[in-house]
Amino acid sequence: MRSDANTAGPMTDPVPGPRSESVDVSRETPPPMDDTPIGRAAQQAVEAMNRAGEGLPRPEQTRVMVVANQKGGVGKTTTTVNLAASLALHGARVLVIDLDPQGNASTALGVDHHSEVPSIYDVLVESMPLADVVKPVPDVEGLFCAPATIDLAGAEIELVSLVARESRLQRALTAYEQPLDYVLIDCPPSLGLLTVNALVAGAEVLIPIQCEYYALEGLGQLLRNVDLVKGHLNTNLHVSTIILTMYDGRTRLASQVADEVRSHFSAEVLRTNIPRSVRISEAPSYGQTVLTYDPGSSGSLSYLEAAREIALRDPNVQQRHEQSVQQLQQQQQNSTMSEGTQ
């Protein structure tokens, strides 16, 4: 078979009529990006995806972050799995501990969590080693998950009679010998023993806050519980990060809530807001994070940027990052001076 495009011959003009002057289009220099909202968004997407492949400096010690908020529907699980995937894509080794009996984090990461699977319930109640329940996450290298099963729903009652009930997760993490850069603990929407175990095991609390009218409702109680655990069980515990989720820039309400939260917690709130996104909502139904489901979506790019902020917020990492930048600037300055003397 031959193509119909060649039957007319090389000299045939398919569109008769006058021609304007030919324009020399260079393939070497791309045209400038349009200064439109779509053009700016595309440029930001390209820059964020390029940064995702750069990698980030790893923390000197494992950072254990507790993702907690007793208000439901604020994006705890979504934030946990997508931040974990973002950090792993930046080159870190990350463990997600699903401490919610619903097991939504396990579902989103594509890890089996039916009742016969060894789970975090066995670690807390039966003292099973954490290494026996941790599973690698498909499609994301360096990301691991300790799944939750429905058995965890009864753990609150079963833990009451156990010795050192508040620190069982902490002891399991301490005994875990595999190297990790980050541990993210997805808590249930309550302030019971499961959440207390997470707060005792972690050093940092990450609070997702929905950009809605009831955003700050219940936050005071969570902060009081953090202070109680800090005073009696874990002196290293502190709120390190607050992330604004479900942000809709088209509404005045979202901006007002974001401004109010930043006025109260200016140092803790990330610059990056997580937008409302259909892709973020769709990804778990395919057993994926939004990072693997649609890498170029606004939700994916926002979580990549949020993970970058979190990684650089570690005081040790920030200090080393600044030292590296200063050394690079000094080398460039010395190179410029040497060239000028020649």
Order of helices and strands: HEHEHHEEHHEHEHEHHHHH
Strand order, sheet with most strands: 3-4-2-5-1-6-7
Radius of gyration: 25 Å
Provide the structure class.
Answer: alpha/beta
The CATH homology group name:
P-loop containing nucleotide triphosphate hydrolases
User: Ends: how far apart?
Assistant: 65 Å
Uncertain runs are 1-29
Approximate shape: globular
Instruction: Assign a percent range to the helix content.
Output: 40-55%
How many helical elements? Answer: 13
CATH top level label: Alpha Beta
The percentage of residues in β strands lies in 5-15%
Major β-sheet annotation: 7 strands, mixed
Mean pLDDT, rounded to whole units? 82
Q: What is the total number of structural domains?
A: 1
- CATH topology, what is it called? Rossmann fold
Number of strands: 7
Q: Which architecture name does CATH use?
A: 3-Layer(aba) Sandwich
Give a description of the structure.
By secondary structure, this protein is α/β, with parallel strands linked by helices. The chain has one domain (54-310): 3-Layer(aba) Sandwich (Rossmann fold), CATH 3.40.50. Helix content is 42%, strand content 11%. It is built from 13 helices and 7 strands. It has a 7-stranded mixed beta sheet with strand order 3-4-2-5-1-6-7, with helices on both faces. β6, α8 and β7 form a beta-alpha-beta unit. α1 crosses α12 (298-313). The longest helix is centred in the last third of the chain and has 27 residues, at 315-341. It is globular, with a radius of gyration of 25 Å.
